[in-house]
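Anyone have tokens for N-(5'-phosphoribosyl)anthranilate isomerase? Sequence:
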Amino acid sequence: MREPIVKLCGNRSLSDLAKTTSSDASHLGFIFVGRTKRYVRPEHVGRWVKKVRPRQKLVGVFIEPTIEELEEVLHFVPLDVIQLHGNETVSQLLGIKEAFGLPVWKVIHHQTDGLQQMEIFSGVADGYIVDSKVDGVSGGTGISFDWEAVPLYRDKAYEQGVPCLIAGGIKPDNLEALLAYQPEGIDLSSGIEVSEEKDISKIQAIMKGVERNVASIS
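Reply: yep, here.
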């Protein structure tokens, strides 16, 4: 297995970004989906990134974006990965990859046809985020799914040669239970927050837990 991926998502202020940048996470995420509580304006993110200069890869989260919407964000923010959280099609993924030449990660909601969804995007998606299925909500619920299914998703992605991150309700006090299923990556937002701001102690607890797990299986 590859080195574990840790994505700290939902950065919504310069303070948030300073805290997550100080960690050993591999990826930092920003939500560019309007009318969501973690939405950030691309011009603001651009200024924050110039100030703190993260060494991590930057991930932009979108729901069924137009090419124009992506162009606007990329004008301000040097994204490394585009993450799609909606009902995008294979042809839409291909169009985005052709337009920007960036890796595209696809969110799969845990449900009975989750693995079939991964089959549909085989050879097109450059990675997956598996999140909880909550009616009427695209993500960011802080609700976990049955992690016994994690190895199935992990192995399906591994067959395709791409990473698979687990999202939804991950926090310091349940991290060990999730890592027992050996996911390739984890994606956190609310689990590293206090009063809707990133919390350095929670971030450090997550990173220490990941480090201990890597040491135990290496």
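The mean pLDDT is 93.
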